[in-house]
Here is the input.
Amino acid sequence: MPNRVPFNEALLSTVGTPKLTKLLDSSPRSRVWRVRLADRRLVIVKQITDGGDTGADANTRFAREVAGLHLAGRASGPAVAPAVLATDLSSRVMVLEHLDDLGKTDDWMPGYAESLARLHALTGPADTGALPVWSGPTATDAESFLTLARALDVPVPSTVPNELAGLLERLDPTPHHALLHGDPCPGNDLRTADGVRFVDFERASLGNGLIELAYFRTGFPTCWCAMSVTAAPLTEVEDVYRTTWRGLTGKDVPGDLADACAGWLIQGDALVERAHRGTVDQLARVPAEDFEWGYVSARERLVHRLGVVADMTRDHDHLHAVGRLSSDLAGRLLERWPGLRPLPTHEARPWY
Here is the structure.
């Protein structure tokens, strides 16, 4: 039965006996229950399912999430993730602390940015190997981006290929060891009395925190609910992030935010939900069809990211030509499809 919590004898003895259970909405790759135990405590039970993967892949996702949650559990002061109460590898079940979500608030981003920086600052070089390194854009992505420009009859400046090669080198995650959530989207950030806590660490990795700080500028690229953040709110949240990071590490955030944004731009897989990533060249689809994910289309996501990169690289030492190409590409997309809408603003974020 789908509503039956998969507790074996070991979990029953460790956690207690489930009395009331409620199956919650989740992705096809997991099942999640809110459970009241016999002692009246509330817990969250999450089971990683095959979801189209092989059993080995599901085991890997389970291990990855548990490792990410344990690393996140290092936080001193307010927590940044739920505590892990028990796990069972044989059934890929984890029992987690239940969090009371305070729900909707208009000013949600500063607390999100602070907790994101605190999460990122929890790990360092000694944690190498604890999680996979972040998987960013590749040379294939860069070539797909150039092919898109040619397909739309947008001239490619001669220096762009070299700029993209340099970008890929600078985005190498090897020197960086921040604890990345992997999908810090609305719904995966719960607003509690002690601050924002993140859930769903199935894509946790180690890399440069700017990759996730870039979500504010690039429209939350792994999320179905793409949003734009501009002007004063954007400055505030980036200042909160950088100040929090500096206070915890004693150093400035390493790397270049423009590089991180350009990395999201050239990844076609950042136009589709996880189930469709790695299947086809998504950028190659853009000239022929406009496919939706959530309530925003691929071309609308792409125009937003092109505009962001164009704005950030006007005086950039290493991405100036990429910025000019981005500006021209955005103009061509809007010229061919004038009905493309700007992304909804951050005030329109969904609440669960």
Summary: The two ends are 25 Å apart (CA to CA). The chain has a mean pLDDT of 94.
